[in-house]
Hints:
Elements: E1 13-14, E2 19-28, H1 36-46, E3 52-56, E4 75-79, E5 85-90, E6 93-99, H2 110-131, E7 138-150, H3 159-164, E8 186-191, E9 197-207, E10 214-224, H4 234-252, H5 255-261, E11 264-265
Antiparallel strand pairs: 1-11, 2-6, 2-7, 3-4, 4-5, 5-6, 7-10, 8-9, 9-10
Amino acid sequence: xxxxxxxxxxxxxxxxxxxxxxxxxxxxxxxxxxxxxxxxxxxxxxxxxxxxxxxxxxxxxxxxxxxxxxxxxxxxxxxxxxxxxxxxxxxxxxxxxxxxxxxxxxxxxxxxxxxxxxxxxxxxxxxxxxxxxxxxxxxxxxxxxxxxxxxxxxxxxxxxxxxxxxxxxxxxxxxxxxxxxxxxxxxxxxxxxxxxxxxxxxxxxxxxxxxxxxxxxxxxxxxxxxxxxxxxxxxxxxxxxxxxxxxxxxxxxxxxxxxxxxxxxx
Length: 266
């Protein structure tokens, strides 16, 4: 008999969650009438909240070139004063990031960030309709959580990987010749129930650039699309994706890490 997946009403929460970045995103069919001046026009709508602007390399997509010149159109970052929230805009994509900054606000929680993202997307839809640049046809939704787990007393690499993630454990008795590995990478994918989509999880050791401090990067990313009338059901899909990320994080990480490092409570 297959193991049943018990579902509780409340999701686990943490006093000190290790999340350092959250990304909400939608990918859609590139708008046929989209041109560079539209980026500036949309920026004017949100400039009070996102006064800084930067160029960034476009996220790989074969359909984002200008239809007349064939030249690639840029990705633009619109950044707030504290540099912890930004809007990413390019033909065919709209993303919203929260990033932890030293001395900045702690993770604001899903309810707060999702409301801002949905408001931004509604504002973008209104802008697209007003300027008559095309119809938004969703191709994919994305929700990504990036977590950093730093070395500390009693939590050192490479043993840190097995102490944090239940599924990774080096069997010294089984491996009689090879020593414990100095580094490992791990990834897995899990198909959703009830909603189209997949949760992909990656775990990689790394070093922080500014001080060479060693850490684990645990990334949980959900991609998919609502089964019916995608835009109307988009908020439900993101809520489902968030639940998978929280429950997946709870399944994969150890009770010791959840309680000692992050202060878990229901």
